[in-house]
Design brief:
This protein has 77 residues and is mostly beta strands. It is 0% helix and 35% strand. The protein starts with 9 loop residues before the first strand and ends with a strand. The model has no long low-confidence stretch (mean pLDDT 91).
């Protein structure tokens, strides 16, 4: 959404699909690494229901998404 975030910020990502489908979400970090964000484990199901709002990390997950350096542009696909 064009927002600015800073090293050490914890973020939550929200997404919704318009219909039932399979979703995979990746992060391309400032070092050029590709990180799987959803599903959290590649063995987990990535099926989502249409018009439901999902969040990463979800309530009850035992991790946080904390921004780390180096500074630069990061992309979530």
């Amino acid at each position: 959404d064009g927002s600015n975030y800073y090293e050490g910020d914890e973020i939550t990502i929200y997404f919704r699909a318009s219909r039932d489908c399979y979703v995979t979400i990746y992060d391309l970090d400032t070092r050029g690494n590709v990180n799987l964000l959803f599903p959290a484990d590649p063995r987990d199901q990535n099926f989502v229901r249409g018009d439901e709002i999902y969040m990463i990390p979800d309530r009850g997950d035992d991790y946080a998404l904390t921004l780390e350096g180096p500074p630069g542009n990061e992309s979530i696909q």
